[in-house]
Amino acid sequence: MSDVNQIIFRKTIYALAFYLGNLYLNCVLIVIINERLPSQEFPLPDIGFEFLPYRQFAIYLVEFYILFLGITLIIVFCTNQFGGQIARRFCVITGISIFTHAACLVTTQLPVSDVRNYCHERIPANVSNFEFIWELLKRSWHEMFRFGFFNSIIMNNDEQRRNFCGANIDNIRAIHIILSYQFLTTYVKSDRLPIRFLFDKLSLYGCWIAILLIIISRTNYLVDILFAYYICTRTFNIYHTIFMNESFYHSTNGNMFNRFWWWPLLSILCH
Question: Which helix (H) or strand (E) holds 78?
């Protein structure tokens, strides 16, 4: 492997570690919030819940769609001429978005979004500090690995279907759906205009249907979805605006983008 390829490979590994690290951080906070939320809180009023019916099976369809998006993105990463660079950008942008989600997740805890959502039991109060931390990390690791892997489908009883209460304001699913749509419609190209038009429309409809299914399943408040949309679109558009203008590559007085905390990641991981 040449020196250039080694550098590219290391950058890809670092970008993947940045993404997975932020995903695990979210899982840790979700488990911590499960220990903090009052157990008898009622759901907040939500306009999405008022106009859309509750259907438990909707979350199954969302998980199928997330798996489909993941497979499609992997195909793009492996077949595109610049697949490695696209993969690094996806990891960094998604990592930034879910880190922002983590920062907001820990500040305000909303009640469970539906009374039919079962919460995991809390860690017993009579354990030692070491046992508490160990159980916290173990639950966080389990929460991370069950994300998007047909968790709702393969678990066949109420006890197994229990979620951490923090996951009821977990819009990580929405973040991945929105960013996957943006990446696919940006980097999947076709010289044939009808195919391109059809792909963009189907991707758009699929994204919005998945978002509606999340609300129908009552796993997220509508405000979480709007928040995820704002984070994802702003981060994606600003990030790519910087890449499309070489004048923003350098820290100068006229480059206000360098005030973002994640601006150094561009030169380190994604060039």
Answer: helix 58-79
Q: How far apart are the first and last CA of the chain?
A: 19
Q: Give me the pLDDT at residue 157, please.
A: 46
Total of domains in the chain: 1
Q: Comparing 66-75, 149-158, 200-209, which segment has the lowest mean pLDDT?
A: 149-158
Residue 36 is inside which H or E element, if any?
helix 3-36
Long-range contacts of 38-47 (CB under 8 A, 24+ apart): 38/111, 39/119, 41/111, 41/112, 42/111, 42/115, 43/111, 43/112, 43/113, 43/114, 43/115, 44/110, 44/111, 44/113, 44/221, 46/113, 46/221, 46/222, 46/223, 47/222
Helices 222-243 and 193-216, axial angle in degrees (round to 10): 150
CB proximity list for 31: less than 8 A, separation 6 or greater: 136, 139, 140, 143, 164, 166
User: Which residues have CB under 8 Å from 162's CB, separation 6+?
Assistant: 118, 119, 120, 121
Residues found in the chain: 271
Residue with tokens 């998604």: 94
In angstroms, the CA 216 to CA 6 distance is 46
Residues of the domain holding 103: 3-270
